[in-house]
Design brief:
- This protein has helices at 2-16, 19-30, 53-57, 71-74, and strands spanning 86-93, 99-109, 125-142, 148-167, 170-183, 186-200, 206-215, 219-220, 225-226, 231-241, 244-253, 258-270, 277-287, 297-305, 308-316, 322-331.
- The two termini are 36 Å apart.
- It is mainly beta.
- It has one domain.
- It contains four helices and 16 strands.
């Protein structure tokens, strides 16, 4: 019975990893947005916000390169790279005084993956939990005549549970999350599922990844249901030389009917994976419908010391100012 179950899982991984599956995903992402969906634009915008400064500095490119606990947001398959426990804390100063925060903890159960996004072996199960919150603080209420009527607060938050496992050069992962939104005391709730696959290519420093995120019925308020920002992503990561990484992602927002592109780079001035200390510089550019020139660029840096990573990212947003994020990660 045990062998039969293992064969069944391996068969699913084999089918999903076929080149034609990746080609179908790319075709879906790049086709015109005429008949893909008849739904209105989605809500729960906070689910699009970066939760990791490293990925944010590379313009959110992470479908193929996201690893560790931070992968729970970008591609849950990346959790399979964990060989030890890992925790992450992230804070971002957002627009108009809002704050965006993330906390995540993950650990390998049994034998850890012992690998990287390029596909080193291992078969241990990895579990991760996360909590994300966007707090808008106190806002002033106004009537139709613009007179003040007191204030109100608003927030959005999501709690997630993810599992990932590595099968040779393939990593698969999935996550479920509970989502809640509140404004002026009116609350809405819903749930969503994320799924992902990463594969390293044998003999070359290349990794590819696909992910489906925010698949669910939407957030239901009193008599209204808002769609979630359902997206399908495909990415490729390439390391032409040791210490230099290139990332490219294409993400299709199904209900919003547009495709976003991200190109990110990371250069390790010294140190690297598996070292106790290091310094990395990062940058990225993105494009898509409605993207302003100011918001197309991002940059950041990361310091590693004693199995801890401190990352910083910023992105200018024109008249809105800029967004800045700092993330602290620690292995244990």
């Amino acid at each position: 019975m045990k062998n039969h179950k293992k064969d069944w899982v391996n068969e699913i991984v084999f089918i999903l990893s076929r080149p034609y599956i990746f080609a179908l995903v790319l075709a879906f992402i790049f086709i015109p947005s005429t008949q893909i969906s008849h739904a209105l634009e989605s809500g729960a915008e906070f689910l699009r916000i970066d939760t990791d400064a490293r990925a944010g500095a590379m313009s959110s490119a992470g479908a193929a390169s996201a690893t560790g606990i931070s992968a729970i947001t970008y591609n849950p398959a990346g959790l399979a790279s964990m060989t030890r426990g890992e925790a992450a804390l992230s804070h971002s100063a957002w627009y108009l005084g809002s704050a965006h925060d993330f906390i995540g903890v993950g650990m390998a159960l049994g034998n850890g993956a012992g690998g990287s996004g390029l596909g080193a072996g291992g078969s241990g199960l990895v579990i991760g939990v996360s909590f994300t919150r966007l707090s808008s603080g106190r806002m002033e209420g106004r009537t139709v005549t613009r007179s003040a009527v007191g204030g109100y607060s608003a927030y959005d938050q999501a709690a997630g549970l993810a599992l990932a496992k590595q099968y040779g050069i393939y990593s698969v992962g999935g996550a479920v999350k509970y989502i809640e939104s509140s404004i002026a005391g009116v609350k809405g709730a819903g749930y969503a599922v994320d799924m992902g696959l990463q594969r390293g290519l044998r003999g070359v420093p290349v990794s590819v990844g696909v992910a489906v995120q925010n698949l669910g019925p939407g957030i239901k308020y009193i008599s209204q249901r808002d769609q979630l920002p359902l997206s399908v992503s495909a990415g490729i990561m390439f390391m032409p030389v040791q210490g230099f990484m290139l990332n490219f992602d294409a993400r299709r927002y199904v209900y919003d009917k547009y495709t976003a592109f991200s190109l990110g780079t990371e250069y390790a001035l010294f140190g690297g994976p598996g070292t106790m200390s290091g310094l990395s510089l990062r940058g990225g550019v993105n494009g898509g419908t409605g993207q302003s020139a100011a918001g197309a660029f991002s940059a950041g840096a990361g310091i590693k010391f004693m199995n801890a990573d401190l990352d910083y990212a910023m992105s200018p947003e024109g008249k809105l100012g800029s967004t800045q994020r700092i993330t602290l990660k620690k292995k244990f």
